[in-house]
Structures are given as structure tokens and as C-alpha cells.
Amino acid sequence: MSVFYLTVVLISALKLYCIAGRDIIAMPWDSYQYFWMSDALYWHNDGSLARRPVFPLFLALSRNTGIPLRLIFESLFIFSAFRMSSAVIRLGTPILVATIAFALTVFTPYSIECFDFAMVECLLVSILLLCTSELCYVFSSRGRSFWLHLCLFAVSVTLGWYSRSESALFLLAIFSEIFFCSILLYFRRSEKTLLFKNVSGFLATSVAVAIATLAVYSLNIKYFNYYSSVEIFQSKAFVRAYDAMQGLHIGKQTHFVPFSNEQMALASQLSPTFAKMYPSLQGKVGDTFRNISRNQAGVSEEIAGGWLLWALTEAAQNTGALTMAARQEVYRKVGAELEAGAKAQHIAIDRFPLALVDPHWRVWLPYFPASLSLAFRRLVPGHHPQNVLTQGVVPPEITQEFDRDANRRTALTVPGHPDEKSVRAGATLRFLASAYRPAVAVFLLVTLGFVAVFRKQVFQYRNLCGLLFISTLALLRVVLVALLDASAYPTGGIDRYMLPSAVLVPFMIALAFPRRRDYVQPAVSGAERAVLPS
Fold first, then answer.
1. Which residue windows are transmembrane per the record (predicted)?
2. Mean pLDDT along residues 430-439
3. 106: pLDDT strictly greater than 70
4. What pLDDT digit, counting tens, does each position of 466-482 carry?
5. Amino acid 216: pLDDT
């Protein structure tokens, strides 16, 4: 193990050297929004309800350390990858295999650039690795150690739950494990312990999420008069209004456009409340998001699905609904009025099983296979990261906000002046990025070879449970990204969407590798050989 620890230190040092000249890039949109939420400690700014609280609170905590945020992201990522490597070794994975998985994870090309932006995926990727590692420790632990890792697993899942809305995938992954273990128990009575550990993981997670939900719910009521524990875009009132708006069955539907100008005009006739929002959507607010949709989604004179949420938010604000509670009431009225008006005029409202997804599936479904294929190809990145990212031109107040909140090293963010360390490390980064996809392919082929040779011994059920959990997390997120790409807006150029899934791939392969005692036979003494059956 000492060789393993030394190798981990060397790999970590190489990664830190490669990114030493990089820093957080100031952006006037999403990441800037997270920073002003962190300044308000989330619950002291009404606009915070557009997001979940974990990442803004993490930014507030990191700011007070004085450590550059870029280094915090990287250090936490390296630690979580190390934790995962140690966990799979405990399950019997060969040390060399775990070390290779660690190296491939740490040098995932997506991580080199994505960590330059203060986005929630920078934290979520570490949470995914930590929760998966704790689950592996749960499978391999007993006594007090089991209960400790069980609690850590529940806490990490809860942090993921309140980082992004799609984190319900955590519980879906646990459900799939329990189902798998239930089938095992039916055929193999010896696996009762494994089923107990899976059920314990689900129950502990449910309790932790319930406690966190109660806390967030109470704080939202106290500070926002908002009776929900989820962000505004997941609230019942908004989902009802949004689904009613995009479901209005009228005219020809356009790809990437769930709520067309024609549907908006009809909605303004059916709903007096929406009629107050309509001038903003046809005016300056709508023009802003139509320009973005044209540039990024190729949509002409319409608002694409990826930006409709924000357009509706600004339109609601312009009606005088300046607080989240007031906007919640606006959405509640719009949803009720649209449903009543459509029913009175015999206008159909189409629905889709998943909330907020464009119900006109005949428009986007033909694009879904290509989107899914693209997402799977991007699961193992093959592109080269840029040699260096430099600070673009943004308003001074935003730059100052990033300098203060991200503890930026301002010498690294001067426009047009890349840092010398980044330039020197560029050759190393390009080489590692170019070798990444071939390295993963070789790793997979070698693993499949060992599985084929030792196929009779390869089915270790606790390893399969860990593999099932990590695969479910990765693959369901791939499907969600493909769904976005097909129905809402192109995601092909947004690497951070794929980062949480991509870093799990090396450990998926490592967990499939036969355990070391399956093919390393222990030495047998002469006395033992004498009593062994021939």
C-alpha cells in the first residue's frame, strides 16, 4: 500500500502542477449568480430560490478560508478520487487497477477546463465520488465502521440532493440496488447481509434527506415566506404553469421551442395574469432571450427551452412580483387560469410524463437517438483542453466580485496575458488529454480479458452492487443530458454536463475487474497439500 500512496501523491502533484497557472474565470451569468447567493448566505437574498442551497453555502465557506477556489475544487476532487480508489481496494480490486482508475479520473480532460468556472458541477463531481466510495466502504465494513460509513454515505447523498435537482438519481440508484439484492436473496440465502446493507443505506439516506428537507423548508418559510423545500423552478405552482403553457395544442411546433409565440398569444387570451407578462415576453425581455436562443440553439425569433425559465422569471418580475412568494402566486394563477380557459374553449393541453419536458414529443423524439449517441461518445472525452484560459472582458463590478469571492490570483486573470506556468504545462496537458481515450480503451479491454479468463469467479455480489450503483448514476445522467439535447437546447458544447458521469467511468471498469484473490492463488505448504483432496 505504501507504493499506492506514493503513486497517488505523485499523480496528485502532477495534476496540481498542470493547473497551477489556472484560475476561476469571471462570467456574468450562472457562476456570478452563485456568488451573490453565497454573499447572502443563500437565505438573505430572495433570488436565491432559483437554485439549491449547498453550492452557494460551499462558496461562502471556501471564501472565508482565503484559499483560491480553483485549488479548492481541484484538491477536493483529488481527495474524493483517492477515497474512491481506497474503497475499491477494500472490495478486493487489485491495487494497480485502483491506481490506474485514480489516474484516469484525476486527469479526465473535462476537469481541466470545467474547474475554471464556478459551477455546481465542480462540487457535484466530488460528492458523487465520495458517496460512491462510502457505499463501497459500507459493503466492506462491519461493526462501528459500518455505521460510520453508513452515516457518511447518507450525508453525502443529502449534499448531492441539495446541489442539483436531478440528484433524485441517487435514490433511484439505491432502489435499483435493493431490487437487485432482493433477487439475489431469493436465489442465494447467503446474501442476506448484503441486502441488509443496501436497505440500511436507503433508510439512512431517506432519514438524512428528510431532516435536511425539514430544515430547508423551515428556513424558506422564515426568510422567504416560501412554503417549499425545492427551488422555484421545481415548485408545484411553477411546474403546473409551465406545463400548461408549453402544452397548449395549437399551430406547428418548432424543435427546441416548447412555448412558441403563437402559444404565448393564445395564453394571453386565456389567462388574465399571463396577459400582464405577455408584453415583457414580446418586448425587451423576450428579445434578449430570443437573441441568445438564435446564437446558441439556432432558433429564429423564438425562445428556446433552455432559456424560457429565465424569460418567464423576468416577465413575472415586471408585473410587480418582486419576491419569490409573489412570483409563486403569479405562477399559481397562470396555471389555474390556463387550465380553466383551455377547458372552457375545448383546447387540448398536451402532457409529458416528466415535468418541464416539451410534451410535443413527435417534434424532438427523432433527434433523441443522435443525442443519446453523442452523449455516450462524450462519456469518454477525446478532445484537447485549451492551453490556457484567460480572463475575458466583463464589467468591473463582476470582476471585483470574482476576485473577492473566489480568492482569485489576479495575476492569472489579466486579459490577453496567459500565465507562464500554464503555457509550460500546456504540452503536458495536451499529451495527457490525447492519451486519455486510448488509455481508457486499453483499461477496458484488459478488464474484459480478465473477466473472460476468470469468468467463473468474477461474480462477487458486493462488487456488482457497487458497479450497479455507480453505473446507474452515470448512465441516467447521460440519458438526461441526451433528453436536454434533443428537446430543449444543444448540450454538445457544454462539457460540465458530462463531467459527473465521465469521472465515474474508470471506477466502473475497476469494479468490474476480478478481485485479486480470484486469480492470485495463495502458497500452499507441504503439510496442507498432504491433506487437500486431489
1. 91-112, 118-139, 146-162, 168-187, 199-219, 435-454, 466-484, 496-513
2. 91
3. yes
4. 898 999 999 999 999 99
5. 96
H/E run at residue 362: helix 361-364
pLDDT in tens, 161-208: 999 987 778 888 888 888 888 887 777 766 788 888 988 999 999 999
* Residue 257, beta-bridge partner list: 254
Domain residues for the domain of 80 are 2-226+374-515
**Phi, psi angle pair for 407, to nearest 5°:** 50, 50
How many CA atoms does the CB half-sphere of 397 hold within 13 Å? 1
The amino acid sitting at 533 is: P
Which grid coordinates are listed for 237? 405552482
Both 15 and 156 in one domain: the answer is yes
Same domain, 391 and 336: no
Contacts of 408 (CB under 8 A, 6+ apart): 23, 24, 68, 69, 70, 402
Q: Are residues 436 and 484 in the same domain?
A: yes
Closest C-alpha to 262, from 289, 280, 287, 281: 281
Domain assignment present for residue 61? The answer is yes
Rounded to whole angstroms, the Cα distance separating 260 from 250 reads 10
Do residues 287 and 307 make contact, with C-beta atoms less than 8 angstroms apart? no
Q: Are residues 172 and 31 in the same domain?
A: yes
Q: In terms of C-beta density within 10 A (0-12 exposed, 13-18 middle, 19 or more buried), how is residue 47 classed?
A: middle
Say whether pLDDT at 122 is over 60.
Answer: yes
Same domain, 261 and 409: no
**262 and 394 housed in the same domain:** no
Domain count, the chain: 2
Contacts of 237 (CB under 8 A, 6+ apart): 328, 329, 331, 332, 335
Q: Given the C-alpha cell 416548447, which residue does it identify?
A: 258
Looking at the fold, whether 213 and 292 belong to one and the same domain comes out as: no
